[in-house]
Amino acid sequence: AVVHAEQGLALSDARGHDIVLRTYLLAALALSRLALGDLDQAEHAVREGIQLSRMLKDTVTCATFLETASWIAAARQEPWRAAVLMAAAGAIGRAAGATGAVSARV
Q: How far is CA 64 from CA 12, 16, 30, 91, in A?
């Protein structure tokens, strides 16, 4: 998944930087990097994804990135930060009307 997401990001860069596509690819990359334990790279993808989702005013995707950031914090043994990020993800998700995401039920 990492290879495909990175290839997609490279294509996005080469072809004019499609922000929506880039945001979804960053979400996939962040989760893949997290699963592999590459927390620094996962966090980098999350930070860029949050910036882009805010530019797009896509609050549901922003909430998803915050939830992923929460999982990264938990993997780093930072429970307080993880809880704050998950609460923020849940609040933003609910405000946006999301009902299917885990964070929407926090």
A: 21, 25, 11, 11
